[in-house]
Design goal:
14 helices; D-Maltodextrin-Binding Protein, domain 2; single chain; alpha/beta; 2 domains; 19% strand; 5-stranded mixed beta sheet
Length: 339
Amino acid sequence: MNKKFILVLVLLFAFSIWGLAQGNATVIRVGAYPNITHSQAMVGKANGFFEKALGPGVKIEWKTFNAGPAAIEALFAGAIDMTYIGPNPAIQGYVRSNGEALRIIAGAASGGAALVVRNDSGIQKPEDFHGKKVASPQQGNTQDVALRAWLLAHGMKSVDKGGDVKVMPMANPDQLTLFLKKELDAAWAPEPWATRLIREGNGHLFLDERDFWPQGKFITCHLIVSTKFLRDNPELLKKWIRAHVELTDWIDGHLPEAKKILNQQIQSEAGKALPPAELDEAFTRLQVTYDPLRASLLTAAKSSFDAGFLGRQMPDLSRLYDLTLLNQVLTEKGKKTIQ
């Protein structure tokens, strides 16, 4: 048997082993949005941090969404295993599935939402919202519910609930367009869109949502997983959560570098980076976190129920959280666990 033939056999064997390894790789499908409230996902996707943490036997398939309800539908359909998402779509997905489809396993972002009014809208105080047109990103999403709850607290209702405030759910870019056309008076928007409405849309900050919450903290993004994937892959998820916690700490400690990486990823996915000044201002109202801030979500759920999005009876959310793996990671790192 000549050396050339032996070399061919060795190469064929090596390729066959590589092929088997690829075919047997564990695949995890993860959803995220090109948004600063999804900082861990964007930074981790850009620098390969999660791939390094999970190891060569795991393949990550990232799925991009524009809004929470679409991510929930993908989770229901089995198209993704977990996703970074806002609280209200997660609550609604949990309720729709009778508590069976998903669990919250970590927090991701606190703050980063504001009510912005157009400078020439005539709005100076809450009563001035009567008869005005106010936008939210999507009906039933986190900012939409916050807007409706705020209106109720000030004795106002949306037109569809018998009031005179026209709540107009629409995509964030469309809000900016209508601000510039003077066809929209105000918007309850997440960052960086609140900052863009201020800097590009002739708007000003009417209220920062942090002002309503204890210590200015409220959940705007967390990590949820399908219950099936959680049951079948706890060790894999623990590695992901460990990487998520480490990324959170790294972003906090290296914010200028993290914002640069984040902005590059947003440009890659959304086609346009944020001006550095807008990105800096947006981050003044936002904090990355692994704490899911359970109390703020339960308050948001009550607001969602009052707004008519959760049926006729306040749902039981006692099984919505599973923080077992997160607390294992925190204990191993000598950090305080989360109740």
